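dumping this here so i dont lose it
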């Protein structure tokens, strides 16, 4: 398959000259770890379906990777063929990516929650040759779904099932004898660092999912920059509970531990109590996840402070952290909380520093990582002075190399600036604060409502677990604000009570929500972001709320 990555010669030259693109593959780091620390543990995986706890050394992982790579090649997987897999956070996920690198195949990991509609499009667009699934996960028969999908996908040659039987059994790929020609095969199939090695679909809130293409160089700049910013070392123990099929999990759950030569603990189903158990039993020092993960773990820490004793750093990604949550998490977890902003298209772009003072660490989304730049511009693309809200753009070494078969959507200008779709403010020191999505802006009576700031104040209410503010059309004012709230167990909240609370917080009256919707849970993307378009749909279709203000 031809991927046609968008890689202008000037970008390639400048990134190498600056030292951001180092032309390395993850298998290089694996080989170095095997040579230097063969008995060190890179993976401790917990399988909630079987109850198994799998521990692999670097030597054992490399052996499994090589056998798996030979098995895939034996099934006819060629260089640049796409291998798709829909796996939880199991050790086989990491092994599959490394095996794909060994033979020049392209990794396409898809989220376990996707079903026929999404997968038929994703695997069809990628012309996937192999699809690997669990036999069952969380009560769903993935094997049966994969068989059904195969009937409608002519390029899909094989379905492999972890825990399956017969020709479908994933485990049969490991059964072959050692191959004396493996070294020569791997050398001949080795991809270049500017070749497409990963296709990951955006979680997507509307429209067609976009297949984001990355190379080893674009991925590694992000991993290396994040390691440098956070001070991670081989002595750290990393917990990854975010899905490995999401870019956060892939970069910092699959790649970073092997780059560091460190130990990665994998959790396949998010259960905050279980996460606390793993932190305590495995001596976890670092973890990373979206705001709901931070909120849930903070709740557990309130009753189990001893479980968090080794945890020194939590990086919160996916959406701006409400200030009140960041402060509470810092106190109860006893760990440094860093905020990060990024996208599937470029991984982490900005991140606070562990040594930053509280006002920066808890109230901004950080400054640009090495190899990246950000700027805030007006509607005409002119950079704005510090403190003014505008469109956020990013450029640099971590930016992706195009959307699969959709070059017209690339969204990069001739100077390399990528339009992120976010609104932000930047201070004089280069620290940004995401203020919302451009498409989520609410304009009431000609005045923009600072949605993220309003949500942050609502989070301060003791009855509020989660909050989101969206606009609803209004004939007179253009739009009015609606607050969606998930309440803490056993607590209540009315619109007058919320308005009184926000007034006490000195919030301007024109920013007040004029309608309150209490929901049991928020609709979210696979990465934990609240899907505001679904909330807007709910507002349009629901009957008038009796608590709405006139």
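and the seq i came up w/
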């Amino acid at each position: 398959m031809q991927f046609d990555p968008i890689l202008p010669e000037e970008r390639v030259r400048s990134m190498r000259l600056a030292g951001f693109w180092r032309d390395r593959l993850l298998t290089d780091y694996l080989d170095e770890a095997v040579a230097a620390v063969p008995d060190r543990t890179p993976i401790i995986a917990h399988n909630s379906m079987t109850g198994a706890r799998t521990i692999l050394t670097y030597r054992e992982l490399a052996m499994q990777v090589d056998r798996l790579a030979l098995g895939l090649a034996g099934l006819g997987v060629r260089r640049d063929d796409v291998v798709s897999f829909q796996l939880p956070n199991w050790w086989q996920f990491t092994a599959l990516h490394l095996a794909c690198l060994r033979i020049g195949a392209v990794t396409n990991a898809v989220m376990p929650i996707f079903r026929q509609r999404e997968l038929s499009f994703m695997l069809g667009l990628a012309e996937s040759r192999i699809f690997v699934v669990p036999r069952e996960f969380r009560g769903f028969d993935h094997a049966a779904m994969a068989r059904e999908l195969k009937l409608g996908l002519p390029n899909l040659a094989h379905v492999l099932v972890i825990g399956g039987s017969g020709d479908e059994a994933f485990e049969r790929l490991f059964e072959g004898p050692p191959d004396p020609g493996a070294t020569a095969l791997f050398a001949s199939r080795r991809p270049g660092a500017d070749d497409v090695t990963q296709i990951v679909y955006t979680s997507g809130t509307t429209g067609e999912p976009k297949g984001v293409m990355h190379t080893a160089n674009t991925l590694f700049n992000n991993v290396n920059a994040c390691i440098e910013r956070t001070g991670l070392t081989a002595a750290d123990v990393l917990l990854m509970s975010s899905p490995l099929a999401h870019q956060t999990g892939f970069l910092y759950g699959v790649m970073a531990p092997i780059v560091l030569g460190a130990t990665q603990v994998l959790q396949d189903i998010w259960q905050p109590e279980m996460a606390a158990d793993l932190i305590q039993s495995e001596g976890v020092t670092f973890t990373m996840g979206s705001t709901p993960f931070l909120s849930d773990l903070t709740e557990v820490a309130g009753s189990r402070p001893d479980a968090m004793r080794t945890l020194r750093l939590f990086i919160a990604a996916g959406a701006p952290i409400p200030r009140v949550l960041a402060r509470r998490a810092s106190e109860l977890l006893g760990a440094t909380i860093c905020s990060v902003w990024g996208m599937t298209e470029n991984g982490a772009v900005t991140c606070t520093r562990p040594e930053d003072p509280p006002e920066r660490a808890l109230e901004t989304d950080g400054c640009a990582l090495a190899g990246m730049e950000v700027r805030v511009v007006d509607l005409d693309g002119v950079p704005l002075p510090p403190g003014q809200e505008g469109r956020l753009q990013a450029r640099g070494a971590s930016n992706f190399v195009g959307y699969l078969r959709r070059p017209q959507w690339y969204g990069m200008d001739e100077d390399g600036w990528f339009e992120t779709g976010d609104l932000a403010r930047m201070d004089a020191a280069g620290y940004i604060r995401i203020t919302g999505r451009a498409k989520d802006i609410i304009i009431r009576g000609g005045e923009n409502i600072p949605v993220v700031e309003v949500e942050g104040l609502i989070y301060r209410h003791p009855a509020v677990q989660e909050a989101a503010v969206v606009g609803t059309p209004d004939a007179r004012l253009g739009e009015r604000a609606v607050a969606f709230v998930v309440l803490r167990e056993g607590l209540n909240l009315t619109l007058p009570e919320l308005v009184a609370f926000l007034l006490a917080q000195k919030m301007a009256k024109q920013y007040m929500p004029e309608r309150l919707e209490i929901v049991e849970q928020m609709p979210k993307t696979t990465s934990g972001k609240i899907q505001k378009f679904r909330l807007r749909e709910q507002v349009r279709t629901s009957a008038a709320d009796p608590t709405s203000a006139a």
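The domain at 1-22+216-400+409-439 is CATH 3.40.50.12780 (Rossmann fold).
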